[in-house]
């Protein structure tokens, strides 16, 4: 089952700090590290038989992304863009929580021409963060014309893409988000939100809730699976990894409880990686 991952791949600059700075405060960085990141990278890395489609621009960050992608065992299509790549600064606290400061560049710049000759896929993964950029309306238009199943992760900036959310619901996608995102979108408890969203799409709705596990709703039953607690070293990419595992499981028609257990384990493996393992 082939999956197209239409999502950005970024240069992530990890800054490990003992606490987040407040206004005008001076905080010392304990250690730093540059790594490949972005929804597109994390999803394609964790989802077998996927093809990552991510624009590449110019500049030092573009060169870093290109070299790293070529060294990975990921099938990748990299359309070239004339503008510079941006960078994502990731502040990592001692508890592993991350805060992003994103400077968007060429990696978020899709065009209709990039999508013309893409291979036919059984599934398409698309993320809300990429759809914040107005020119990426072409991604929605592409999904609307394809016969592929759609897997959509709206992401944390729900309030920035209200029009996009309506358009994506019309495509009847499988939805994947965390509890906070679901409640912000639906303005109710996430359990009620999952039911409401299913009524609009008639497709599975998947919600993660950190150490409290993850949920899936199929219109008949609410599934819930929890794993043993672990020490989080870096939560970056955990949600993307969970989504990727769910996408792969759905493509194999795996039972929902097994899908959630598998995705939980993949996410745990991601958050327990140390700096030296990135």
Q: Would you kindly provide a brief summary of this structure?
A:
The protein is built from 9 helices and 15 strands.
Number of helices: 9
Order of helices and strands: EEEHEEHEEEEHEHEHEHHEEEHH
- Helical percentage: 25-40%
| Uncertain spans | none
Q: Characterize the overall form.
A: globular
Count the strands?
15
Class per helix and strand makeup? alpha/beta
The gyration radius over C-alpha positions equals 18 Å
Q: Largest sheet, order of strands side by side?
A: 6-4-1-10-11-12-13-14-15
Bin the strand percentage.
Answer: 25-35%
The N- and C-terminal alpha carbons lie at a distance of 28 Å
Detailed description of the structure:
This protein has nine helices and 15 strands. It is α/β, with parallel strands linked by helices and 278 residues long.
Helices and strands in order:
Layout lengths: L2 E4 L3 E8 L11 E9 L1 H8 L3 E4 L2 E3 L1 H12 L3 E3 L2 E5 L2 E6 L5 E6 L8 H4 L7 E5 L9 H9 L3 E5 L8 H9 L3 E5 H8 L3 H12 L3 E4 L5 E4 L4 E4 L12 H14 L4 H16 L7
Parallel strand pairs: 1-4, 1-10, 2-8, 4-6, 5-7, 10-11, 11-12, 12-13
Antiparallel strand pairs: 2-3, 8-9, 13-14, 14-15
Helix pairs in contact: 1-8, 6-7, 8-9
